Amino acid sequence: MPKIGMEKVRKQQLIDATLKSIETNGLQGTTISTISKLAEVSTGIISHYFGGKGGLLKEATVYLLAQLKKDFISQFKQTKPTPYERIEFIINANFSVAQSGDRAAVAWLSFWVQSMHSEELAQVQKVNHMRLASNLKFSLKSIIQPEYVELCTDMLAAQIDGQWLRCALSHSSDEQFQQAALNCRLLLKHLTDQYGC
After folding, report:
1. In which domain, by residue range, is 76 found?
2. For the whole model, what pTM was predicted?
3. pLDDT of residue 3
């Protein structure tokens, strides 16, 4: 009989092995075999817990999204942040070490490409896109004139995604990722100066 809590441990072990395999071998070179070897488990465990490689890739993406949420929430202190600070927290989370390290960057790029061919990953990516827009809009409504909220949401979301993508594709250092985050905060300041209420 399996130990209590072992399923959670095994699942995380397989997610970690998946991200490591993608970093080392790329998505095409990542197989059930490469994952199971890195996790030091039998290949059948992947099918047992995730139904196959597709299910495991989806869970690895969901794990990265959970890390993004964790990075966002960890910035909250005892006082309630202002809407402007909340947006800064969103920017910071998207450029945190957890999201910009080599392993996460390679995985995100791989998942984005694969989402064009996988309905499961496309759905996760859609949720991610909608969550970013919703979180930005929630705070922008308090500091931007109503008729410009959609425009500012689109511009900030595109800036965050675009700056992150440029850094990831060029294998940027942590300092370059932080500069990209600063560029996003500069756009936020520009938008609030121009369209603020």
Report:
1. 60-195
2. 0.88
3. 61
